[in-house]
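Lab meeting, item 3. Inverse folding demo.
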């Protein structure tokens, strides 16, 4: 209810953007990528951007989709391509992109390489479970994903 009040208040003021703030002069300022990236850099003391978070999410979604699809039996290049294509379609839908863009820009090549070797995340969550996961469960899944990318075992 509190969030709804804030959004209503933002929408009642003139301007096309919902994500805005009042600057030091009391003027509404649209939140831009540079504002967010500056903030992320300040709170993390590293060179991290919003795209890094989106890429990590795309990698996580893609790894889960591939793992749920499973390694084809019998394995063949065609069957592997089909599974990867299906997983990238699912990931693209979540990210609002094309499967080609997701594969090229958002899903780590390490996930794809691991899958092609038959390595996947154990017991991958569904999208609904992933969205509802506790911070602790999400952190554990992200550690498994990092292991998958680094050494092919998730």
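The presenter then showed the designed sequence:
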């Amino acid at each position: 209810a509190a969030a709804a009040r804030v959004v209503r208040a933002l929408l009642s003021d003139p301007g096309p953007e919902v994500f805005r703030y009042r600057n030091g002069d009391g003027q509404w300022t649209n939140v831009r990528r540079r504002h967010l990236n500056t903030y992320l850099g300040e709170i993390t003391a590293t060179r991290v951007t919003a795209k890094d978070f989106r890429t990590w999410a795309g990698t996580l979604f893609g790894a889960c989709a591939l793992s749920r699809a499973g390694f084809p039996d019998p394995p063949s290049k065609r069957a592997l391509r089909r599974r990867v294509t299906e997983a990238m379609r699912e990931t693209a839908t979540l990210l609002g992109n094309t499967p080609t863009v997701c594969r090229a820009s958002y899903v780590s090549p390490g996930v794809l390489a691991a899958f092609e070797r038959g390595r996947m995340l154990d017991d991958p969550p569904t999208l609904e479970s992933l969205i509802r996961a506790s911070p602790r469960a999400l952190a554990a899944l992200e550690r498994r994903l990092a292991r998958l990318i680094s050494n092919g075992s998730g």
